[in-house]
Amino acid sequence: MKKDFKSLKETCFRSNRMLPESGLVLHTFGNASVVDRERNVFAIKPSGIAYEKLKPEDIVIVNFESEVVEGNLNPSSDTRTHACLYKAWKEIDGIVHTHSTYAVAWAQAQKDIPVLGTTHADHMAIDIPCTGIMSDEMIGGDYEHETGIQIVECLRKKRLAYQEIEMILVAGHGPFTWGTTADKAVYNSIMLEELARMAYLTLQINPEVPRLKESLIRKHYHRKHGEKAYYGQK
User: Fold this and answer.
1) 42, 61, 95, 165: which could join 69 in a potential S-S bond, CB 3.0 to 4.6 Å?
2) Is residue 221 flagged as an active site residue?
3) Closest Cα partner for 35 from 5, 78, 75?
4) Domain containing 122 — which CATH number?
């Protein structure tokens, strides 16, 4: 491992190892990446390598055109999706994609995850969006790049800021999360799966449950994220 990319690779390695430790991935499914904005490259998990066999030196360094800069293994098959998001959104430093059970179930159902309780509202005041299903033209084209375009366009059409939502479901596929750090991207992936599970269980108990009232949503969101937030320690 070249010393030049040692720290970046080790950060990416730790992020990827957190995914199976958090119960978000099985076998080789899923990937995490970490960007270096100064050098316009990012580190990402190699394709098809089992997490228990993954080593820091296996991590692949690619540029924003998804070309390998350093590494002897093929980068993740989702590399072009990560590259698309890094180019589109300048304020993110980490991206995670998993096939976690409950988030994938919502993605396969092609449904947004509604705000049903204060746990969801503590993290965001809006439903977690799900994209539309991809067109045949996009599937037949540069599929992984088109997945990134689909994510960016979904937020744009819904007038949602990537700095606030930090998670999405790709219809028929699964979840992507991001953050201002690699750790935040992983955290968002963990929370997305838990919110997806809570929403699913709630709807099993009461299929007619309404969306949480707006005043409660705003109260919980703003006490944690608003200008006068008072959650946590100073």
Assistant:
1) 61
2) no
3) 5
4) 3.40.225.10
